[in-house]
């Protein structure tokens, strides 16, 4: 499951809405919506995210969070390190190799570390 899929499922369940009803309302197939929630589809396009935001009638910060989560929820990420340092290539390869064995606490720690590094 992706961060966007997790949030989407949470919003849908909080409101007691079936996947079929939501899919019909936003103009996608129930299979697509299920795949989106389970992380078996790539990042939804901008128009689909806007339909979801409108469907749940979320505004401001919540709408921005949904858009941000969608942008960061590609389950098939490719990292191109061509032209970067050898360390960047090693980091991306180590992450690809080890990510499936990391626990949630380790993943959260790495996310915080990388988010903090962006703001420096």
What's the topology here?
Blueprint: H1 3-14, H2 19-26, H3 30-38, H4 46-56, H5 60-71, H6 86-98, H7 104-118
Helix pairs in contact: 1-5, 2-3, 4-5
Features:
single chain, 120 residues, mainly alpha, 434 Repressor (Amino-terminal Domain), 2 domains, 67% helix
What does the average pLDDT come to? 93
> Please, what is the CATH homologous superfamily of the largest domain?
lambda repressor-like DNA-binding domains
Spatial extent as radius of gyration: 17 Å
Number of DSSP E strands? 0
How would you describe what is shown here?
With 120 residues, the chain is an all-alpha fold. It is built from 7 helices and no strands. It has 2 domains: 3-71, Orthogonal Bundle (434 Repressor (Amino-terminal Domain)), CATH 1.10.260; 86-118. The chain is 67% helix and 0% strand. Helix 1 crosses helix 5, helix 2 (19-26) packs across helix 3 (30-38) and helix 4 (46-56) packs antiparallel against helix 5 (60-71). It is elongated. It starts with a helix and ends with a helix.
